[in-house]
Write a structure and sequence with these properties.
- Helices cover 46% and strands 28% of the residues.
- With 154 residues, the protein is an alpha+beta fold.
- The protein has a five-stranded antiparallel β-sheet.
- The chain starts with 8 loop residues before the first helix and ends with a helix.
């Protein structure tokens, strides 16, 4: 059993409500446990000053939406962490290690992913424009070569 309390019904309701606000629909969430390296001094008041971080089982909420996976980790009373990822090699955080308020943690994850999604789409559009421009240039070169060949034949 985890030393960290599970997500409460109120916390789950907060998560569900914020996801409905963001996506305008019900989003399926999953409960899990994740092992995180946490400083024992933060978990137990009597722990040694020089204790090393150790793996601690943390209650976790997971959901998948808009090609991204999200996790919220509960690391203690009023202690939450978050990240989102597209693949195991594409993992992102919010730039803040830990939040004291669940709603701020969720909002930061949703906003950061939304910003990241816009950036990715912008890069994809820019890439498409570069590709289209490159194709146009190649076509112009081929046309010039064909014209030169035609002149040589004449």
């Amino acid at each position: 059993m985890s030393a960290i309390a599970e997500f409460t019904d109120t916390e789950i309701a907060t998560i569900r409500e914020m996801l409905v606000q963001r996506y305008r629909k019900e989003v399926e969430i999953h409960l899990a446990d994740s092992d995180l390296l946490l400083d024992a001094r933060e978990l137990v008041e009597d722990s040694a000053e020089d204790s090393e971080p150790s793996a601690v089982s943390c209650p976790t909420v997971y959901w998948h939406e808009r090609n991204a996976n999200f996790v919220i980790f509960k690391c203690g009373d009023s202690r939450y962490r978050t990240q989102f990822f597209y693949t195991p090699h594409e993992q992102f955080g919010t730039g803040i290690t830990e939040y004291q308020r669940l709603d701020e943690c969720i909002a930061a994850a949703l906003q950061t992913q939304s910003d990241h999604e816009r950036t990715r789409q912008g890069n994809d559009k820019a890439s498409e424009e570069v590709t289209a421009e490159a194709k146009k240039e190649v076509l112009e070169e081929v046309t010039k070569i064909d014209l030169l060949k035609m002149r040589e034949i004449d």
